[in-house]
Amino acid sequence: MILSRNFLKDYIDLDENIDIKTLAENMTRVGNEYDLAQKLVPATKLIIGRVLECVDHPDSDHLHCCKVDIGNEVLSIVCGAPNVRAGINVIVAQVGAELPEVTIKKGNIRGQESCGMICALYEIGIDKKYLSEEDKNGIHILPEDAPIGKDPIEYLKLDDEIIDFDLTANRGDLLSMLGMAYEVGAIYGNEVKPLDLSHSESGEDLNNSFEVRVNTDNCSLFLARKALNVTIKESPDFIKNRLIACGIRPINNVVDISNYVMIECGQPLHFYDADRLGNVIETRMAQEGEKLTTLDGIERTLESTDIVISDGSRAIGLAGVMGGLDTEIEETTKNVLIEAAIFDSVRVRKTSKKIVRSEASNRFEKGLDANRTYMAMERAVKLLEAYADATIQTGTVVYDKANKEPKKVDIKVEDINNLLGTEISLEETLNVFAKLAFETTVNGDVITVTVPTRRMDISIKEDLIEEVGRIYGVDNIKGKLPNAPMRMGHVDKTDREIRNKMISLGLNETLSYILINDKDVHKYTNDSFEELKLNDPMTEERNTLRYSLIPSLYKIYEYNRAHYTKDVCIYEVGKGFWKKDEVYGESKKLCALMTGEYYLGLGMKKAVDFYIIKGVAEEMLDYLGYGNRYSFVLPKESIKEFHPGQVAEINVNGEVVGVIGRIHPEISKDAVYVLEIDLDKLLAKKVGKMKFKEISIYPTVNKDIAVTIDKDVTSDEIVKVIKKAAGNLLIEAKLFDIYTSAMLGDKKSVAYSLTFGSNAKTLTDDEINPLMEKIIAALEKNLNAELRK
Amino acid sequence: MKEKIEEIRNAAKNMVDEIVDLQELQELKVKLLGKKSELSNLLKGLGELAQEERPKVGAWVNEARKEIEEKIGEAEKYLKEKAMAMKLESEKIDITAPSTKITRGSKHPINRVIEEIQDIFVSMGYDVVDGPELETDEFCFERLNLPQGHPARDMQDSFYITEEYLLRTQTSAVQARTMLANEEKSPIRMICTGKTYRREDDATHSHQFNQVEGLVIDYKDKNTSLADLKGTLEVFMKKMLGPNTELRFRPSYFPFTEPSYEVDVTCFKCGGKGCPLCKKTGWIELLGSGMVHPRVLEMNGYDPEKYSGFAFGTGIDRLAMFKYGITDMRYLYANDVRFLSQFDRQDKE
C-alpha cells in the first residue's frame, strides 16, 4: 500500500514540518514497515521553459538544436525527441539536475553546446505505465498557459510525497487512505475529518426496477446503485495524480473513480455498464466448468469454489477478483451500475491465487468493514456526480447479512501492565485509546473499549494491549531478565558427541538438502518403505524426501570432484524420511563418505579402503559404549549400489543398524566408501555406565599362531573358534597378517597374536601350552585349518 | 719397586689415552686391572717380600690401581658421551618437514552457531527440545492459531506431501508439541533448533534453512511480560553479536503471538552507521517474537487465565554468515570441501 501525502492531507491536518522519512520511521515504530519513502518525483532543478527556436542539428538526422527561454535566461539545448518544436512549453532539467537515471551536465553534442535537457515525464521519474502514448514516445508538452520559469512539478500538481508500506497481514484497515489517516492521527494526535458524501438523487427508486439476488453464504453484503448519463472523459488532475502516486494507472474518470474510492475507503467497487446488464444481479457459486471471459480477454473455466456475479443466468464477473468483458465500462457507456459488496475472504483468496492477485482481491482477502461498504457507495456516487456529470438514481438495492456493530472489549490497566511489564497509568491508557479514536467507558477498574468496525484485527484483550504497547511506544518499555526460579537446562549432547568424534576422526561436517530426486530415493538400501514425494516440487531434482543420506553425500562428493578436490572425507548427522504401513516417520542417521587419501604425510600416504571406514565405524561404536556388541555381516541380499565383495551390515545385538561398504564400481570408478548408521535404532540400545576394572598385577603372555585355512573363512569365524577353545585366560586374539598366493590356491595364511593373562597369578607354559594345543585342535577340527610350522 | 709401579701406572695411563672405542676400553680395563694384570700379579707376589715392605708396596699398588680406575672411568664417560652425540647427530631430522596425520575434520558453521545458541540458553535454564521435520498441518499451523484459509499462511509457501503432512515451515511447530507433552502443565523454558523448509530459492533464500525457536510459559504475572522478553533477547543478541548490539522492537503481526514484535538489531556490518546490507537504516531485521496468543495456550492445554508466556524465533543461517563473514548464502549448502575445511578450529569465546 502506497501512502500519498497529498491524499492523506484530505483527512488530517498533518504538520507540514514532518518530513516524509520521519513519518515513515514513526509509522515503522508502531508496526508498519516501509520499503521506500520519497518525493513522488524525485528529480531536482526542473523548470518550465518555452522553446523559442528549434532547428535540425547539422550533424544528425534526429537531433534538434533548441533555444529555450526559462524566464531569466535562454538556454541552448540539444534535444532528440521527435515531438520537440518551437512554440511549446516544456519541462527543462537545468545543469546539475539529478534525474532518476542521470545527472545533467553542461555538454557538447556533436559540436553543438547543450546546457540542459528537455524532459519526458518518464525521464523525471513517472513510470511509463501511467503515461499516454504521446508521453511514452516524447517529451511532455505543457499547456500554453504554463508559467515560464516556475517549478513544473508544482504546476503539474505532482509535488507529492509517498511511502510504500509493507503491511502485516492483519491490518486490512490500512489498505485505505482513511485507515492510514487514523493510524497517522494516533501517532501525532490528529483528528480524522469526515468524508464528503453529499450528493443529490432523482427519479424512481431503483428498488422498483432492479433486483439483487444472493444465492450463496459467501456474500454477506451486496449494495447496488445506478449512476445515469455519465460523461466518460479524462479525470481531473488531482484524481489522476493521486492514483499515480498510489501506483494505479488512470484510465478514464469513471474507472478512476472506482479505484479512487477503493484507495480512499478500502472498499473495492465494481462498475458495470448498466445497459448491458439487465434488471438483475446475482451472486452465486460458479457451476463446475462454467465459462467466463474476464476483462483481460481470457476465457476462464470456473470451479464450484469460485464466487461469481451473474445477470441472472450467465456469469458476468468473478466476485472480488475480476470483472467480465461483456459488461465492462467503455467509452460509450452511459449508465453505470455500481456494486459494493463483501465476499468471503478465503474464497476470494483461492480464486485470485488461480487467476490474478489484484488491488481489489487483496482487500477482500484481508476482510472488509461493512460500514465502509455503505460509505464507499455514497462516496462513489458523490464523485460520479461531481466528475462524471452523472445523475444519481434514487435508492440503493441492499442485501445485508453483515455485522455492523462495533465490538466491546473489557480490559484492566493491570492486565496491560502485567503483560507488558510496565507501569502505565489509567490516564495514559485512556489517552492511547483516545488517540486511536476508540471510545471508552470506565467502570471501577474495568475499561470498556468500543472498537470501531474498521479495526477487524481487534477482538480480544491482548489485541488492545498490543495497541496500548505500540502507541505508548515499545521503546519506552525497559527490558529485564525474568526473575524466575533457578533450574537446570537440559540438552542431549549425544548428537554433539557423535559429531565431535567424527570430526576428530578427520571428517568434514556437511549440511545437505533433504530433498532429492525420486529416482535416488531407494538407492543404497533394501529396506521397504513408500517414498515421500512433494505435491508441488520446485524442481524435479528436489521432488522427494530422502530416506538414506548416502545420495545426498554422494552428490556432495561429485560436486567436490568436479571442483578438483579428490580427497573427500565427509559426514553428516541428519534425517531420513519414510512411510511404512500408513505411518509417516523420520529417522536420525549418521552418514559418512570417504575417498582419496586419509593418512597424510611424508611417505605415509594411504588411500581410503574398506578397513579405514570400518575403523571409523568401530571407533564410533566403541566410543558410544557398544564395544564387543557389534559385528560386520555380509548382507543376506546384495544391495545393488554396493560392491558385492566389499559391503557389510552393521549388526548390534542381533539387529542391523547400518551399512558400510564401497560404492559399486559401475557407479563410481574411484574407490568411494560410505557408512550409514540409523542412530535412532542404535541409541535405543542401552549402554551401561563407564566403570573401573581392576588392573592385573601379573604379566601377560603373548603367543603367535599361524594357520592355512580356506579363503572364505572369515576372521570373525576364526576368532570365535579361538576364543571358545581358549576360555577366559585369553584376553585378546588379534589378526596381524593375511597372505594369499598362487601356491596357496584356495587357501590363505592367517596369523594371530594371542594375549593370555590372569588377574590371579602369573601364567606358566604348563598352563598355556595345553590351551594352545586346544586352540590348534579346534581350528583344525572346526575350520579345516592347518598349522604352519 | 716403587719405580716399577710408577712405570706400570704411566704406561697404563698412556694406553687409556690412546683408546677411542668403548669396546677396546673394556678390554684394556681387563688387561690393566683384571686378575692377570701386572698390578694383580704384584699383589699376588706380596708374600715374597719382606714383612715390613708388604704394607708399603700394597699401598703403592692400590694407589696406582685407583688412579688407573679413575682414568678409565673418565675415558669411559667421555667415550659414552661421544657415542651418544654421534648417535643423536645421525638421527637428526628436518623438523620442518610435514607431519604425519589423518585428514582434517571440521564442523559446519551453521552447527557451530546452533551449539552456541544451545549453550547460551541451557545456561539460562532452558531445555533444548527436538521436533519432527516432517510435520502435520495441525502442529505447523492449526495449533498455532493459523486455521485453513488464514491470510498469514501466504507468508509461508509450504512443501506439502499430503493434505496433512508437510515439511515444517517454522520451528514454532515445536511450541505446540512441547505444551501438549507437558502433562502437569508446569512452566516451560525451552528452545528448539533445526531445519525448516519453504518454497523459495534465490540468492538470499534457500528452500532449506535453519531456525531457533524459544518458548517460555509461566504462571500468569510471573516472569513472562514483554519486558522479560526484551531482556532475554537483549542478553541473547549481545552474546551472539557483541556487547554493543542494540535491539529495536517493532510491533508486528504473527498469528501465534499477541502482541507481536519484529526485532531489529544494530547492523552487524556497519555497526549502525548505515550500509548497503542494512539499506542505510543501521538496523537488520533479525527476530520475530511476542507474547503467546491466548488461543495458542488454550489449544495446547494451558489455561490462558492462569498462564502466560512469550516466544521468539530467528534464522540461524544469517547469524552464521555474519559470525564467519561468509559472503554468499549458497556457500552454506554447496558443501565444498575447500569451504568446510576452513571451520576446523575452536571458536573464540
Description:
The complex is a heterodimer of chains A (789) and B (349). With 789 residues, chain A is of the alpha+beta class. The model of chain A has no long low-confidence stretch (mean pLDDT 93). In chain A, 25% of the residues lie in helices and 29% in strands. Chain A contains 19 helices and 42 strands. Chain B has 349 residues and is α+β, with helices and mostly antiparallel strands. Chain B has two domains: 89 residues; 232 residues, Bira Bifunctional Protein, Domain 2 (BirA Bifunctional Protein, domain 2), CATH 3.30.930. In chain B, the strands form two sheets. In chain B, strands 2-5-6-10-9-8-7 form a seven-stranded mixed beta sheet, sandwiched between helices. In chain B, strands 3-4 form a two-stranded antiparallel ribbon. In chain B, strand 7 and strand 8 form a beta hairpin. In chain B, helix 1 packs parallel to helix 4 and helix 2 packs antiparallel against helix 4. Chain B is rod-shaped. At the A-B interface, helix 8, helix 11, helix 13, helix 14 and strand 27 of A face strand 1, helix 5, strand 5, strand 6 and helix 8 of B. Strand 33 of chain A pairs antiparallel with strand 1 of chain B, so a sheet runs across the interface.
Q: Layout of SSEs?
A:
The complex is a heterodimer of chains A (789) and B (349).
Chain A: E1 2-4, H1 5-8, H2 20-29, E2 33-39, E3 46-56, E4 64-69, E5 74-79, E6 89-93, E7 107-109, E8 112-114, E9 117-118, H3 133-137, E10 141-142, H4 152-155, E11 161-166, H5 177-188, E12 211-214, E13 219-228, H6 237-245, H7 253-265, E14 269-273, E15 280-285, E16 291-293, E17 299-301, E18 307-310, E19 315-318, E20 322-323, E21 336-343, H8 345-354, H9 359-366, H10 370-387, E22 391-392, E23 397-400, E24 407-412, H11 413-420, H12 426-435, E25 439-443, E26 446-451, H13 461-472, H14 494-504, E27 508-509, E28 515-516, E29 532-533, E30 544-545, H15 550-562, E31 568-580, E32 583-595, E33 597-600, E34 606-607, H16 610-623, E35 630-633, E36 642-652, E37 655-663, E38 672-678, H17 679-683, E39 701-710, H18 715-726, E40 730-739, E41 747-756, H19 765-783, E42 786-787
Parallel strand pairs in A: 12-15, 27-31
Antiparallel strand pairs in A: 1-11, 2-11, 3-4, 3-6, 4-5, 6-9, 6-10, 7-8, 13-21, 13-22, 13-23, 14-21, 15-18, 16-17, 18-19, 19-20, 24-26, 25-26, 28-30, 29-30, 31-32, 32-38, 33-34, 35-36, 36-37, 37-38, 39-41, 39-42, 40-41
Helix pairs in contact in A: 6-7, 7-10, 8-9, 11-13, 12-13, 18-19
Chain B: H1 2-18, H2 22-33, H3 38-44, H4 53-90, E1 101-102, H5 109-123, E2 127-129, E3 134-136, H6 137-140, E4 165-167, H7 173-181, E5 188-197, E6 208-219, H8 226-241, E7 247-254, E8 257-266, E9 283-292, H9 294-299, E10 307-315, H10 317-324, H11 331-334, H12 337-340
Parallel strand pairs in B: 2-5
Antiparallel strand pairs in B: 3-4, 5-6, 6-10, 7-8, 8-9, 9-10
